[in-house]
Each structure stands twice: as structure tokens, then as C-alpha cells.
Amino acid sequence: MKGRPRIWLVGLAALLCGMAVPPRPPPSLGFAASFAVLGGSAVNAGTSTITGNLGVSPGNTISGSPTVKLGAVFRDDATARQAQKDSAAVYKDLAARTCTTDASTTLAPGVYCRSSLAGTLTLDAGDDPNAVWIFQSTTTLTTAAGTSVRVIKGGFEGNVFWQVGDSATLGAHTAFVGNILARNNITMESGASLSGRTLAQTGVVTLADNNVSLCCKPIVLAPATLPDGKVCVPYAAQISASGGSGSYEFTVSSGALPEGLSPLSPGGVLSGTPSRIGETTFTVTARDKVTGCVGSQVYTIRVTCDVPFTFSPAALPDGTVGVKYTTQISASDGPCVKGPLTFSAASDLAGVDPLMPGGVLSVTPQTAGDFTITVTATDPVSGCAGTHQYPVKIFCPVITISPETLPTATVGQDYPIATIMADGATFSTFPDTPAPGLTLTQITPTTLVLSGKPTQADNFPFTVTATDARGCSATHKYILTVIPAPACPTITILPETLPDATAGVKYTAQLIGSGGEPDYQFGPQNLPCGLTLDPTTGVISGTPSLSTIATAAGGDPTPSMPPSPRCTFTVTAIDKNGCKGTRMYALRVGCPQLSISPSALPNGSVGTFYNQPITAIGGTAPRLFRVVSGSLPPGLTLASNGTLSGTPTTTGPYCFSIAVTDGSGCSGASRAYTIVISAATCPSGTAVIVSPPALPFARTGVPYAQMMTASGGTTPYTFSVLSGTLPPGLTLNPATGLISGTPTSSGTFPLTIAATDANGCLGTTGCSITMMVDIPALSGWAVVVLSMLLGIVAMRRLS
User: SS3 of 12, please?
Assistant: First the structure.
């Protein structure tokens, strides 16, 4: 018999829940499964209905007499005590789980940490009838008034568990689901309902006008969504429920209805006229009047406004860039207007004030073109708004360009200066040369000047554009008429030839024009050869030079330039009417006389510094000297100013020629010099003279003897052939200076014979002399003269 009560209780739980206890965790509630209310004691205030068993233990006090349906009352008997033991075991098992903190309003099955609720919590089973939710609180569990918990998508409310470490309190009108397992008290405030169990281990379960239903079947509200509404349009919707007894009471358990709708009727009728746009979300709860089970549904209603607005005026006036205008705009939305309208403006037109206090539109256009201004009127009470698009044309201010026409021009005559002006704008584009010979110059940002002398007859169109600071512009097209000049007479330039000029000497000559109408203009101003032509007076002036003449001719001046080269150029004379005459001149430019001094240079010694100035007379500065033939003694250099200096390093005779060029490019005849460099031991100023300066002719096979002598130094002298060779068969005695022997070959033999005294002083027969073999016999003097001439020729060849 002991087992019968348990079997009966389990059967009761199955009957009330309508399904078996879930086979997956959490563990079975055992005897506690059949109790809708179980605690140490129970207190009821007001009218409360319990669907399921009511039990108390370890106390046995139940006050307030709640209504118990489909169950029995157990006061601290074996059944109540066993139910408390089974409840405590499940509590312990639930407390051992690990929870996750998640504040979302929609949760999938799982274990969560949660100690308070507000609003609507949706438990989404995902079409799994065995889905389980476990909520843990180490302290208390509280819900705000009007809180709603609902299970969707096939979930079972009996698989929701609330493990509370202390006490649990359901706020007024809370629609709650699941099994509450609290260590201490469980309190349900007025109007709260529970589809599940209140299982308090030692505390008091307190009820106040509540419904506690064991394992209610799901109460489903329909429709799932409500239609949206419109301001000033009556609204009506019917909400119904299913899954219970068929008799329900409907309430808004959380959130608020749209403004203008009446409170939800107990029968689920929602009606009224929305008075403000917006989106509202609220929860409707349906309570089964028989079982007390509840179901809820979250609804969102969006209220919009389709009231037509009428704007006045219907169109806006056009505007001008930079000119401000204002206009009053009004609007009406009919009987739905609840208060004064507010206005705002938006546009692609720069300068529109977006704020419109009192409906005044203020516009200061900044650019020209076609634009749209969109004005919005808003009812601050209903939130309704309307817009109106105003197309606006913005024109540029008038920019005046004057004069209207330009005076006629004549070919070859100065144009009467014409001024073109822009009023309030800057000239931005215009042609620099509107007609051949005429120029258009911008002298100020707003002023153009047309001037010049036209060269071609025709009608020349051109356009000028002026733009103001805001980008507005105006153009004006001109047609400039240029007529032909009258027939021209022959213009003659005099004189026919110009007087000769001297390089480096200032030159002037006067040109005059005849045959036309003065005043004449002469050109070009810059003539070749270093001369200029005054365009007004016709005076040619300047200082000609050979270098400029050579440059004008395409070459460089050279010493071989003719003494009177010609500077060729053509000049033009144009009279007042533009008639023109030309003449070509060939100006002869001569050079001044230039001479180089001294006539001879002193000799030098190896290792002794040598310094000798070479000067020139005539011509113009600067005078530049250069070596034109031969070679300077090693160690000596010739500066461009004519200074020959340095320290000789090698003995011997050195023959060379020096030329000079003056500042105008003129060159005189060059001068030949010979310098003999003696050994370092030679006393300064010693000059050794070797005689004779030339050798007599010789014949092959005929004995030959010629004595060379030296003077001016210190004996003894040593004779030698310094360069070249004697004719074959002849020898030079270095001690006596005798040249002797019998020539064996005919020919011409250039050579230099030197004599060195006891101090190393050197004397020579020059840079080279020539000895002839087999030349017809001449008189002695003729032989000497011919030998000297041949020596000079040989020196030229060596240089």
C-alpha cells in the first residue's frame, strides 16, 4: 500500500502536464512533480486558484483558503515530506550546473545566470519539444511589474527551471512560466500568474489574487502580427487565443499602445484613432479563465502619416546671384493639424538658410543655374510632415562691356588707342593679338587697351569675356575693321654709301629718309659689327671690331683677315603712313698699325729666372700676345699680356715668332726672336759669337776646309754640331773649330754649330744653317749671301 500514493501522484502529474517528464536533464522532480504549490507553509490573500496539488512541510499551516483544482491538499504528511526531499535533490543538482551570463531577451536552451527580469523574455525551443532552460541565482530572483516569460517553437513550460539561492518575488501582473525552486520564500504579487510550480524548501509561499497552473498547455495568441496604422485613420484589430479552455481574458502586460488607441478590451479588441506617428512595441497576455494558464505575444505597430499637405505659394520667384530675397511659406494638412507647423529647407543651391522660423524662407544665391529647394512642414504634435519641391532659376547679374563697337584701323598707321571696360567684373579671356600688328593689353583687371599698327587689311572678329567674383560671366564680340593704307611713294635712304670705319675707333654716320611723309622710323636697332641704329634719328653709332665682323660672317678673326673687311647690313625706313624703303650697306672696317718690340731678346742660363716684357704699339686695349711659330725654351711661358718669363731648364738655341691682337680683333705682323740658353755656370750677360754665320759650298771629291771661330766668352772654346749633321766626309775638330775633309755625297745639309766657352756659355750659328754640296761655283760674297738665305729658309722650316 505504501507504493500506491506515489503511483497516483505521478499519474496526476502526467494527467495535468499532458505529457511525460522529459527524459533528459534536469533530473526528475519525483513526488514534487504533482505539486503546483509546495513550501514550509502557504498564505493566500484575495482570490487565488491553484491547478494541481498544494502541500506544506515541515509546517502544516495553510491560510487564506485558495481554490485548488484537479489536485489535493497535503499538510506535512509522508507525501509532502517526500515531495520536499525530491525537490531538495533537484535543487542541489541544478545548483551544481555552470551558468552563462546573457542579457538577451530571446534565449535558446541552456544554463543562464539571471537574478532579475523586466519586459518580455522569449525562450526559443527551435522546434525541439525536449528543450530545457535552467536559470540560476545565488541570491534572489525578482521580476518587474508586467514582466512576461513565454516559450515558443514547440517548447514545454515544464522544462524551464529557476534555481534561487534565497527568495523569489514575481512582480504584479507578471506572466511567468517554469519551476521555481527557492531555498526560502516565494512571493507572487497581485495579478501575477505562473504556468509551472512554486517549490519553496523551508520558506513561505505567499499568494495574492494569483493563478498557479501545473504544466499548462501553451496558450497561443493570434494573429502573430498586427496591422500598421495611420494618423487620423480609425484603427481596429481583434486578438484571440487558443490552446486552453476557450475562455480568455486579455491584458497589455508590458509596453504601451500607440497614442490615440483605447485600452485593450478584456475580449482582445484593440481600437481607436492613432494621433502620432511612430513605432510602439507591447506585450499582450491571454489568461485562461478556467485553468489560469497564460500565454503572451509581443506586437509592434508602426503608425505613419499619409495626410496631404498643401503649400503656399505654389512656386517661388527666380533669383539673382548675390542678391538676397525672402518669402513667406505656409502649409496645411487639414483637420489633423494639432499645433503650429515648423518648417525647414534643403537645397543644392548654396546660400539657402535651412532654418525657417515662422515659415520664412531666406535665400542668397551664390551661383547661377537651375536648382531645387525642398521645404518640409512638420506637425510637432502628430509628427506628420509634408514636403514641397520648388524649382528655382538663378540668373547672373548683368555685366556690361563697353564700348559697343571699335573705331576703324588703317594698315601701317598707329591705331587710336581704344579702351574696353567691364562693369563689375574682371576680364578673364581675350586674344593678345586680335589683328596682325595690334595688341590687346590688360592694364587693370577691368580694363583692356587696344593699340599698335595694323599690317593687314580685313575684318577681324574677336571676343572678350569678363567674369565676376561669383563666377558669372559676360562676353562681347567685336569686329575690328582694318582698311588698306593709301598707295606708297618710293622711300629712299641716304647716303648711298657709308664712310669707312676703323676697328676700335668710335664711329657715327647719319641716315635720312626721303620720298615719304616724315617722321621716319629706322630699323633694325641692333646692327652687326658692334653698331646700333637709333630708330628715331637715324644715327648709326658704335665701336666696330674685327671680332664682331667675323662673328657676323660666321667665323673667327685671324691674322690673315684682309686689312679692310666689310660689315654688311640692310636698314629700313618707314614713314608715317607705313610706307617702307630699304638700302643695303657694306661698311669697310680697317685696322690700325700694330708693331712689336723689342727687336731682339736677351739670352738666358739654365736655372736662372728669366723675365722679359714684350709690348706693342698701336691698336686698342686689351692687347693679347701669343706664340705663332717655333718653340719657347723649356721652362719659359708667354703670358697673354706679353710677359715672357720662367726658369730655363735646357741649353740650346730657340727660335720662335710672336704675334699680337688688339681689343678690336686687329693683328699686326709677327716678330721672330732667337734666345740662346747657356749652362748654369755661364756668367750673366756673356754673349758667345760664332763665325762665320754660314758655311761655304763644297764639292764632292774636292778637299774642304773651313775654320769656325768664337768670341765674347772665356777660352778655351769647345765646338760641336748641336743639331743636324755635316755632309758625309767632313768632320769638325772640337778644339780648333776646323771643318775639314772631302765630301762624298751631294745634297743640302741643315745643321747648327755651337761653341761653348770655359764657363759653359753657349754660342751658335742660329737655330739652323744649311750647307750645300755640289752647288755651282759662285763668288765668295754670293756664296755667303746664298748660305744666309738658305739658313733663313731652314729656320722657317724648323719653326
Answer: helix
CA 132 to chain centre: 63
Q: Compute φ and ψ for 644, nearest 5 degrees.
A: -100, 115
**Residue type (1 letter), 661:** T
Name the residue among 409, 411, 580 with its Cα closest to residue 486: 411
Angle at 754 between CA 751 and CA 759, to 5 degrees: 165
Q: Taking a C-beta distance cutoff of 8 angstroms, is the pair 173, 148 a contact?
A: no
Residue 215 in grid coordinates: 504544466
Distance CA(688)–CA(700), nearest Å, equals 32
How many Cβ atoms sit within 10 Å of the Cβ of residue 302? 14
User: Any idea what DSSP says for residue 187?
Assistant: E
The helix or strand, by DSSP H or E, that contains position 140, with its residue range, turns out to be none
Strands 769-773 and 747-756: antiparallel
Rounded CA-CA distance 377/361 in Å is 12
DSSP 34: G
Question: Using CA atoms, how far apart are residues 526 and 512, in angstroms rounded to an integer?
Answer: 17
Q: At a CB cut-off of 8 Å and minimum separation 6, what does 395 contact?
A: 318, 319, 320, 321, 368
Q: Which residues, at least 6 apart from 350, have a Cβ–Cβ distance to it below 8 Å?
A: 365, 366, 367
Cβ pair 657, 792 in contact under 8 A:
no
Q: Name the 3-class secondary structure at 86.
A: helix
The pTM score is 0.40
Cβ–Cβ < 8 Å for 572, 579? no
Q: CA-CA distance, 178 to 163, in Å (whole number)?
A: 11
Mean pLDDT per block of 10 residues along the chain (799 residues) reads 39 41 62 90 92 91 87 89 94 94 95 96 91 95 95 88 97 95 96 94 94 77 94 94 84 90 94 93 83 78 88 90 88 74 87 84 87 90 88 90 93 88 92 94 94 93 92 92 86 93 90 90 92 95 76 42 72 88 92 89 93 91 92 95 95 93 83 92 91 94 95 94 94 95 95 94 89 68 53 47
Burial call 712-744: b when 16+ CB within 10 Å, e when fewer? ebeeebebeebbbebbebbebeeeebebebebe
Ordered strands of the 141-143 beta sheet = 62-63, 41-45, 204-208, 186-188, 168-170, 141-143, 116-117
Contact status, residue 767 vs residue 752, Cβ threshold 8 Å: yes
Give the C-alpha separation, 244 to 220, whole Å: 9
